[in-house]
Design goal:
Helices cover 20% and strands 12% of the residues. By secondary structure, it is an alpha/beta fold. It has a domain of 190 residues: Collagenase (Catalytic Domain) (3-Layer(aba) Sandwich), CATH 3.40.390.10. It starts with a helix and ends with a helix.
Amino acid sequence: MKLYRFVKTYAITMNIKKIPHYISVIILSLLLYSCSKDDKPNSPPIDSNKPKMKIPIVVHVVNYAPDPFEISDEKIKSQIEVLNKDFRKLNDDWQKTPNIFIDLVADIQIEFYLATTAPDGTPTTGIIRNESDLISGDGKSLDPNPVIEDLPLYFTEKGGQDAWPKDKYLNIWIADFIDRNGEIGFAGYANPPGSDYRIDGVVIDPRVFGLLPPLDENHTLGRTATHEIGHWLNLIHTYGKNGACENTPENGDYVDDTPSQFASSHGKPTFPRVSCGSIDMTMNYMDYSDDDSMYMFTKGQKERMWALFAQGGLRRKLFENCRLN
């Protein structure tokens, strides 16, 4: 109504006795829709706190037939929750990071979920089960160039389970590592970027997976999966793999903001621990501390992970299939 009065007043001022209807419409439209650049709303900024991709996981439960564990769906789902907290910096314990490292803690901006669609397009829970006499060692070889067909854990016809396409899924095989009465040695391992498509993924003992029993007493927070998926995303241990301090391609982790560290950590390290002339980052997920003593990735590690998804990167196709707009 005020706009109409404005038009009418304008007509009187200009000595226009009658305003054609179409002229009124044009004037009103200009008044309603014209505005200066300063009046236009700005496009919302890109939220750097949002996830950039969500990766579907298929969990291949290869349960040891002579004495199978109870590996419930709830146990598996609890591990997915851990991954989403650890990779998004949503775990409460990251705030325990010492002040010297606190500004380096990174939100990796990657999330995970149990796959809902199988490679053939049919619905799935993302959890595939079978019982077998295979153990995790049946997926690992000391030979740097193994014959893939000699690793039965990755073949359904040999008692294991076939991998799903690595450009669309993260494969996790759950398989026993050692006898039920001994200590867990290697709790898990990863087949890193560039591995044969038939073995691409990680292998984890059920006693270090998720938050529900069965669990090893030092691995109750699901951090083994966080560690191994870090390897799957191209991270290397933060300590010198050759027992040396030099951060070189032969010995280092290719990350600038993780201090040089002489050896791996175990148990619950007391802070500060010094080696190589600096304080060790024993709380990094890529060390070997107990679950309750590791709780952070660094910004440099984030850069190394995301380099996989760049043009020409070894996991570029995965990014294209899993990216979020």
